[in-house]
Structures are given as C-alpha cells and as structure tokens.
C-alpha cells in the first residue's frame, strides 16, 4: 500500500497541463479491438487503470507498440481468444471497470464476448444490466455464471440492428453497445444514450474508422451497421475531471494556477458549477486561469434566496466524479451548501476524514451532505487517512495540501488509478508532497 506525506498550508503557483482523459482512454483502448488494422492513439495518460487495460489487450494478443511518451499503436489482427477462458483473464478483467468495454467489440467482430465481474471504485452498486440488455436487443444470447461472477454473450449468427430505449444512460454501457452495434446488420437506434464527451470522442473515432453513427452528442444515436472497420489515428481529450480537481486545488490553497489547454467547449457545466461556490474562473484562450482567492470564496444562493444545492446528473448534467472535490472545497467557502450525490450511494463516506480534520459537515444520509464553510477562519488540521476511492483520494489530497501540518494518506494506488505522476506535477507548482515506499 503506497503512502503520501504532505506538508500542507503552502500556496502553489504556476501552470499545470491536464493529462489525457482516463475515462475516454478506457473506451478508446477497447475500440482498437474493432479492426484488424493499425490504430494510433495519442495523449494516452500513464495511469494505473489505463496501463492495466493495455496489459489486458497485450495478453489478448493485441500488438502494442509505444511510439512516444503518451502515444501507442495497436493492432488486433491475431487475437488469442483462448485467453478469454484463462485464469489470467479473470485477474486482468477484474482489475478495473473499463475492461467491461472489451465485450462489445468482441461480440460485434467475433460473435462472442466474455468478462469477469469488472473492478473499479467501490462506490455503491454498479450493475451491468444496461450493457447486457443492449446486447440482447441486438440478438445476442446472455449467460451469467453466478459462482465465478463471469458474464458471457454470444451471437454465432451475427447481430441484428434494433431499436432500444436504455433503462439508464450508462456511460460504459452505451460505449459497449455502440461498439457492438457498428457491426450489426441494419440500423440500431439507441435512445437515452449517454452523451459525455468520452462517448462523443468514441463515436468520432469509430466514424473515422468507417462506422456510420449519427446523433453524436445527443441521447439518440443511430447506427447503420458495416461489415468491417479500418485503422485510424485518434487523440484523447484533456481530462475534465483532472481539470476540475486542479480548479478545486487552486481555490482551497488560495493559489494562482493556470490550467493549460483545457478544451473549454467540452467542459459543459463544470466551470459554472465551481462559480456557484464563488470561485473565479477566467478563460484565457483555451487555458483556465484561477486567481489567488485571497479573500476566500462565497457560496451563491438560488434566485429565490434558497440554499445552494450541487448535485450530479447524467451528461450534460454535472458529473458525479467531481462532487467529492466540490464537497472538500465547500469546507472553506463562506456559506453553506448541500452536496447531493444521486448516482452512487457510497461515495460520501470519506467526509468522516474531513470532519476529523475540523470540517463542519453533516452527513444527512449516504447520498447527501450539508457543508457549513469555515470561510478560512479556521484551517483544517493535518491527519492520517486512507484513500477509499479515486475521487475521495484526490479530495483528501487537496484537503491535506490546504491543512495545517503534515498529513499522511495511505492507499494512494486509488489516486494513481487516474492521476499521472501526481506528486511530480504537484511538486512542480510548489507542493510539499513525498511518496514514501
Ligand atoms: C470507466 C468509466 O467511464 N467510469 C465512469 C462511468 O462509470 P459507469 O459507466 O460504470 O457508470 P454508469 O453510467 O453505468 O452508472 C453510474 C451510476 O449512476 C446510476 N445512473 C446512471 C445513469 C442514469 O440515468 N441514472 C442512474 O441512476 C447507475 O445506476 C450507476 O449507479 O460513468 C460514471 C457516471 O458518470 C462515472 O462515475 C465513472 O467514472
Ligand atoms: C468512478 C471512477 O472510475 P471507475 O468507473 O473506473 O471506477 C472515476 O473515474 O471517478
């Protein structure tokens, strides 16, 4: 178990370049299975989850070549399908959430796909019904081995396009179904599709490989099946969750930070949601400039004067992956706010650690926490903590960087899942952080 030691209470300053988006990379890497031709992918973040998926692809027989620091080429022309029945696959597939998205491409291209129960954050129930109901709508047979927690779909006679109304706008579910449907005979219509930038990028990539997907960016996708896809080159967008993390870090440590090349058009409600907490965000070209909040930041209220509420919703709503960061920065705001995590039921329990540090938070129930901000009149106090999940981990790290004294964070592998060389990049802007062991 890795550990960070963090000496808090120092201001940071400088520029930070966001890495490529973790959750886009996981979709895009699975999409390399859609063709036997070479695919080049740029801006792949060097993070634990992505590297685990690359290992899985290698073990499946994909030829992987590193072209540069964050660029790779992949060729899936001679896959070892026996690997899908191996013990090693159970380990590799169960190691991250994103592995679930190999099922769609394999089903579409080879008529069968398997996956052990995928890993990822333990943040509440994470069911996979949407994925498999979608595959069944395309004509696949589904089986689930409860004992081994192993999922399988088969369509020996190929997939047939159909209309489907998804029960929920699942992000990885939509990506998975799209990657199967591009090979289905006829037209598939997916209503209530997820439409995050990750999905838009995936569809853009598949179209550049010869797929015929329309409605990209909306919740109604129409896919005309094709027989074969070809190679392409694709560049992953900057990680919007990392961008949000750096906005929170700057505000909470009263630091002046420029976040470079953020691809502003794809940030949706993220900037305005930070502004609801009173944080100043200046757009400079395609950079975000956060001035030092020397006089703190004040939570806004709604037009009718009622108390501010920040909650998640499927895209273009506010992403659930930034609510933990919103919560931590609210602890130093002037005013009170209700944080409502609607999607996941176990993502707010980390507030206990913040309460230990002196934050004023009432955990109303597993989904809702009321935060009464200190307005920097009382600094958080350093403590020892363990990172329960990736976004709670980065939130605790931000809390530690703002706190008085030296904090210790264990289980930092959770942070490494999604943040590339985090201590190196934070040190470059003045953070006092050390990885021990
Ligand atoms: C690898 C990856 O890309 N992971 C992301 C992906 O996970 P993932 O694709 O696993 O998440 P889903 O979109 O399937 O669902 C997330 C949660 O929200 C619930 N739900 C979803 C849609 C809906 O309309 N109503 C609803 O209640 C689901 O039941 C589930 O509890 O999307 C999540 C939601 O943005 C993010 O937190 C994860 O970081
Ligand atoms: C929940 C997340 O990741 P995963 O779905 O991979 O567990 C996340 O990126 O915040």
TrEMBL record:
<feature type="active site" description="Proton donor">
    <location>
        <position position="121"/>
    </location>
</feature>
<dbReference type="InterPro" id="IPR013792">
    <property type="entry name" value="RNA3'P_cycl/enolpyr_Trfase_a/b"/>
</dbReference>
<keyword id="KW-0573">Peptidoglycan synthesis</keyword>
<comment type="similarity">
    <text>Belongs to the EPSP synthase family. MurA subfamily.</text>
</comment>
<dbReference type="Pfam" id="PF00275">
    <property type="entry name" value="EPSP_synthase"/>
</dbReference>
<dbReference type="GO" id="GO:0008760">
    <property type="term" value="F:UDP-N-acetylglucosamine 1-carboxyvinyltransferase activity"/>
</dbReference>
<keyword id="KW-0131">Cell cycle</keyword>
<dbReference type="InterPro" id="IPR005750">
    <property type="entry name" value="UDP_GlcNAc_COvinyl_MurA"/>
</dbReference>
<protein>
    <recommendedName>
        <fullName>UDP-N-acetylglucosamine 1-carboxyvinyltransferase</fullName>
        <ecNumber>2.5.1.7</ecNumber>
    </recommendedName>
</protein>
<feature type="binding site">
    <location>
        <position position="321"/>
    </location>
    <ligand>
        <name>UDP-N-acetyl-alpha-D-glucosamine</name>
    </ligand>
</feature>
<dbReference type="InterPro" id="IPR001986">
    <property type="entry name" value="Enolpyruvate_Tfrase_dom"/>
</dbReference>
<keyword id="KW-0132">Cell division</keyword>
<comment type="pathway">
    <text>Cell wall biogenesis; peptidoglycan biosynthesis.</text>
</comment>
<dbReference type="InterPro" id="IPR036968">
    <property type="entry name" value="Enolpyruvate_Tfrase_sf"/>
</dbReference>
<feature type="binding site">
    <location>
        <begin position="22"/>
        <end position="23"/>
    </location>
    <ligand>
        <name>phosphoenolpyruvate</name>
    </ligand>
</feature>
<keyword id="KW-0808">Transferase</keyword>
<feature type="domain" description="Enolpyruvate transferase">
    <location>
        <begin position="7"/>
        <end position="426"/>
    </location>
</feature>
<dbReference type="InterPro" id="IPR050068">
    <property type="entry name" value="MurA_subfamily"/>
</dbReference>
<keyword id="KW-0963">Cytoplasm</keyword>
<comment type="function">
    <text>Cell wall formation. Adds enolpyruvyl to UDP-N-acetylglucosamine.</text>
</comment>
<feature type="binding site">
    <location>
        <position position="343"/>
    </location>
    <ligand>
        <name>UDP-N-acetyl-alpha-D-glucosamine</name>
    </ligand>
</feature>
<keyword id="KW-0133">Cell shape</keyword>
<feature type="binding site">
    <location>
        <position position="97"/>
    </location>
    <ligand>
        <name>UDP-N-acetyl-alpha-D-glucosamine</name>
    </ligand>
</feature>
<keyword id="KW-0961">Cell wall biogenesis/degradation</keyword>
């Amino acid at each position: 178990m890795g550990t960070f030691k963090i000496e808090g209470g120092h201001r940071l300053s400088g520029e930070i370049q966001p890495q490529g988006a973790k959750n886009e990379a996981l979709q895009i890497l699975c999409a390399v299975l859609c063709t036997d031709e070479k695919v080049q992918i740029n801006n792949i973040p060097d993070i634990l989850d992505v590297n685990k998926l690359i290992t899985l692809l290698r073990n499946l027989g994909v030829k992987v070549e590193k072209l540069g620091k964050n660029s790779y080429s992949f060729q899936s022309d001679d896959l070892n399908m026996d690997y899908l029945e191996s013990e090693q696959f159970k380990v590799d597939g169960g190691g991250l959430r994103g592995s679930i998205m190999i099922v769609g491409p394999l089903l579409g291209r080879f008529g069968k796909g398997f996956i052990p129960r995928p890993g990822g954050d333990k943040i509440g129930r994470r069911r996979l019904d949407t994925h498999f109901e979608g595959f069944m709508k395309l004509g696949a047979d589904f089986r689930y081995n409860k004992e081994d927690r192993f999922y399988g779909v088969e369509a020996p006679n190929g997939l047939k396009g159909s209309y489907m109304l998804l029960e929920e706008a699942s992000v990885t579910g939509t990506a998975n179904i799209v990657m199967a449907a591009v090979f289905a005979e006829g037209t598939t219509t997916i209503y209530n599709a997820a439409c995050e930038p990750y999905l838009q990028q995936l569809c853009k990539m598949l179209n550049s490989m010869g797929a015929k997907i329309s409605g990209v960016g909306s919740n109604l996708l129409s896919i005309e099946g094709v027989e074969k896809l070809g190679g392409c080159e694709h560049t992953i967008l900057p990680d919007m969750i990392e961008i949000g993390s750096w906005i929170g870090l700057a505000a909470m440590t009263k630091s002046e930070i420029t976040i470079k090349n953020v691809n502003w058009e794809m940030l949706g409600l993220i900037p305005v949601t930070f502004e609801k907490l009173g944080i100043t965000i200046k757009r400079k070209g395609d950079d975000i400039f956060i001035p030092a909040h020397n006089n703190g930041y004040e939570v806004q209220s709604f037009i009718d004067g009622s108390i501010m509420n920040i909650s998640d919703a499927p895209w273009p709503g506010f992403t659930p992956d930034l609510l933990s960061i919103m919560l931590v920065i609210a602890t130093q705001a002037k005013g009170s706010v209700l944080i409502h995590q609607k999607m996941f039921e176990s993502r707010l329990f980390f507030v206990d650690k913040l309460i230990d540090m002196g934050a004023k938070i009432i955990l109303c129930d597993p989904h809702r926490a009321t935060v009464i901000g200190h307005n920097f009149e009382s600094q958080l106090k350093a403590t020892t903590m363990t990172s329960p999940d990736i976004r709670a981990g980065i939130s605790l790290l931000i809390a530690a960087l703002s706190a008085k004294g030296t904090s210790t964070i264990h289980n930092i592998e959770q942070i490494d899942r999604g943040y590339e060389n985090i201590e190196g990049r934070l040190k470059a802007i003045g953070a006092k952080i050390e990885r021990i062991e």
